[in-house]
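Duplicate of earlier report; DNA-binding transcriptional regulator, LysR family input re-posted below.
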Amino acid sequence: MKMIAEKQNINFRHLRALHAVAAEGSFSAAAESLGVVPSALSELMRQLEASVGAPLFDRRSRPPVLTPLARDFLDDTTPLLDGMDRALTRLRQSAGLEEGELLLGASPSAISELLAPVLAEFLRGRPGLRCTLHDDIAERLAGMVSDGRLDLAIAGRAQQSPDLRQRAILRDPVGLACPAGHGFAEAGEVALADIPAADLIGLDPETGTQHLLAGCEAIPRAFLQTRLRAHSTVAQLCMIRAGLGLALLPRNAVALFRDPGIVFVPVAGLDLWRTLHLLEPARRPLTEAARAFVEALETTVPALTQP
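Output:
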């Protein structure tokens, strides 16, 4: 069926004007409720009647009354206006962060010291804003940001991708994590040569920390072929706390649980640092919630605003 609206010039201003006249009972009262002068309202009604090709008011009455045609039109257009009002309300609420959803990703070691404090402040006073936090390794988080399953992520550097933008946030040194009761725990620092390779707990080869260790020439190759291996930093720290061994980890990773039973000991002469990055989509705009969270993060971490 050919749409007659193709040759019509009816918009929501006309519909709201007609509904206002019906609700207020007169042109003057409707004009006042809409915040327009009566002549402007009369012109809108003239345009509407011209587009329809039939009168919508019986002007023999004072004030003019709606015709049966206009009454039917009101019934048909009420759902349109109600739907527009709901859509505008949701739009304003989302723009003002009164509601919406924020999908974040983070490597576990980026949560306690960096992401969680910023997120707690960001969510304060916004009870209608929902947030999901997904923890994983950098490459998987990068893939989730690229394909839209996450808005943002904080993790180690991932492989370059045209769908991803990576900005350095902060860096922390790699050292030795050991149980509080271990002989190294009281030392101001430890030498690489004094660390028994047999006591080390390794990580999944795909993790950022393991990539970092593998790429450092100063790390003995025996340190990469460990008898014990954990899938994640969380599991690795649990094993260290239980006394199963030691591990080479970034300082903030060791502080993940703020557990006094796990101690970070600097390694003498080891100039190895882990850098955390903010992973953002490069080919799609951020949601309003994600944009506001990045602003909060930039305020907290000045390095984000530097070239």
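The radius of gyration is 32 Å.

Merging into the original ticket.
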